[in-house]
Amino acid sequence: MTLKGWAKRSVLAHALYYGGKAGMARYHKERKKAFLHAIGQGMPWTKALPYELRDGHTFHDAQRGREKLCIILAGHKPELWHTVFGRIEAWIPKDVDVCVMTSGVHVPALIDMCAQNGWSYLSTRHNKLTRIQNLAIHLHPKAQYIYKLDEDMFVTQGLFDRLLQTYRQAAEESRYDIAFAAPLIPLNGYGYVRVLEKCGLLDDWERGFGKAVCTDGKHHHAAIMEQGAAAQYMWGETCPVLRDIDALADRFGQEPPAYTVCPIRFSIGAILFSRRSWLDWGMFPVDWTNGMGLDEEHIAHVCMYHGKVGVVSENALAGHLAFGPQARDMLAYYQRDRSRFEGGSI
């Protein structure tokens, strides 16, 4: 049983778990203030690194000191690497440094791939998903804009530039303080509604899966994150317009520049944020768990309680294979027709 599962068994266990978690977060928040101030001012830091960055690690450094960095969480879905990394290799702009991260595992195949592509590779001793992201950003001190991807995200041509354009446009013209920018993602609790709307498929979806509502997938309207059939629908199993994400990305990319504000917790398989924001957030928190979803929860908290927003580009599109409950079905679905996921990119 996980610690979280144990904490749900009784009021006392719940209080001990979440009270301890809150106390730990408060302690580390106070301890890292001086570090965040120094780094934010561009000053050198010679003392011990804060808890959020301390771990044994291996870093194959191929960075070129670019202003833009793409960090990719990987190491657990080798079936997808040929397609996912093939797409990134095809369409990552030349002015973006890339760092592939494996948390708690060392993967020689990914080391070799990174060496071939001129990318950096980072692995950590402990499996702490938020810590390895903090460490990757810290090890690339010149990076001011950070793209973060998961290893089951399928990028499309123009995605990176369109996301940056959206981020800068929203920061300049809107009345919001921007926390992050993200693409439309058909398999996403927010993005699926917008994609259905833009493609005229709302009625078709609702005949099979009920009302299309923006959701966190946990408290209501969970089909988009739980049902394998829903994932297959958003990958075009019955709708040709959704079947070719590259054609759909090209169509959205040719529309006038536009974005929407996401009013709910966003699933952050593909996002762009700034180094300034990361420091303002106090980096990503690290606790005694492996950190699954902790970065996402932290960003949602910052947006809601610190007056910031995430914006979703109407012109950028990325595919997402599956959420956890759909993963087994969707991996089999992917393997049956891998060429369709590859498109014309590799």
Task: Describe this entry's structure for a reader.
By secondary structure, the protein is an alpha/beta fold. It has a domain at 47-182 and 255-342: Spore Coat Polysaccharide Biosynthesis Protein SpsA, Chain A (Alpha-Beta Complex). It contains 17 helices and eleven strands. Strands 1-4-3-2-5-9 form a six-stranded mixed sheet, sandwiched between helices. A three-stranded mixed sheet has the order 7-10-8, sandwiched between helices. A two-stranded antiparallel ribbon has the order 6-11. Helix 4 (78-91) links the parallel strand 2 (68-74) and strand 3 (96-103). The longest helix has 21 residues, at 11-31. It is globular, with a radius of gyration of 20 Å. It starts with a helix and ends with a helix.
Average pLDDT across residues? Answer: 93
* Radius of gyration from the alpha-carbon trace, in angstroms: 20 Å
Number of strands: 11
Strand order of the largest sheet: 1-4-3-2-5-9
CATH class of the domain at 47-182 and 255-342: Alpha Beta
The largest pleated sheet is described as: 6 strands, mixed
CATH topology of the domain at 47-182 and 255-342: Spore Coat Polysaccharide Biosynthesis Protein SpsA, Chain A
Percent range of helical residues? 40-55%
Shape: globular
The amount of beta strand, in percent, is 15-25%
Spatial gap, N to C terminus: 42 Å
Ranges where pLDDT stays below 50 over 5 or more residues in a row are: none
**Helical/strand content category:** alpha/beta
N to C succession of SSEs: HHHEEHEHEHEEHEHHHHHHEEHHEEHH
